[in-house]
């Protein structure tokens, strides 16, 4: 896959021009996107910027405002909708020298009705959702970097299904102003790229926080906890195998790996995600539901029909549970440096009618903790299987550093 860091280095060193790097992405998109359908809209030409990400073509999820490209939200309701301003995340991309290569396909309003995008590994398998286009564009080497959003598991899960690296940073690290909300307490911007080092490099450039471009950690002395999220259903056997495999690699690298018992407060917090999201979604999509209900896709329409039964009291109780869960998480994370867990329930579903299940992502989204996934192995159907590395709130640099170390062990021969 294309590497953000490598492209930026070569442009900075004068080995290639930013224009040539962008032209390479343009050629790749032209050759492959007709079948892949990762992009919803593209500019006529890609103009290079200046900065640490010069020459880096970026896919931007089509619920994020762009002043020079339409923002369609994955819905005919917004056909031709043209924002007047770029969202702050788009401004940050441009300020760092990156170039928006196009708007990537999203499920309608980032819910569960599938986008038209195909999985680059198997066109009959799901690419995930809701950031399907972003994940597929990186996995197919159309662009080296893409922006997604996560309310349940929409950064980590499609990345796992498409076999790429992704980070959902700590809540609020990247601004969600100018992003169509679904649940403002949960919505989080994330990055997708070829590897953990690329994610750190790009995140540092976008935020002005050089510590996020964290070097590879020393695994010796690092304490990792295995969390099997026993408050929800079990994953497919391949995901349990992946968790055991990465635990074995971490031990081989010198880390201590222990099984964690999940506090009851975190199980309750997992179940609070539903009513919290439900109440906020009915508010965030109130206009669309009132004026265009019949134009909403079936899964979203049915969801909003049911979510309207969520009461303010349900919402308040969920918020209180979430607050207790975050406090319990701080105590829980004192036992270990980082947590290893499942990234998705299994390989990408063998159907385009489903975007998969976010059950192994929702807790961390609600807690606001940084999560990072990198591909580890292939499952029985030959599709990627990944793991997820989770840190305490604000510990993004440590998550990136440890992921880089684990990634190196995965790539080592033997």
Commentary on this structure:
The chain has 414 residues and is of the alpha/beta class. 39% of the residues lie in helices and 14% in strands. It has 13 helices and eleven strands. An eleven-stranded mixed beta sheet has the order 1-3-2-4-6-5-10-11-9-7-8, sandwiched between helices. Helix 3 links the parallel strand 2 (57-61) and strand 3 (99-104). Helix 6 (196-207) runs antiparallel to helix 13 (396-411). The protein is globular, with a radius of gyration of 20 Å.
Find the count of extended strands (DSSP E, 2+ residues). Answer: 11
Q: H/E series, N to C?
A: HHEEHEHEHEEHEHEHHHHEHEEH
What summary fits the major beta sheet? 11 strands, mixed
Question: What's the name of the CATH homologous superfamily?
Answer: Amidase signature (AS) domain
How widely separated are the two ends?
A: 22 Å
CATH architecture identity: Alpha-Beta Complex
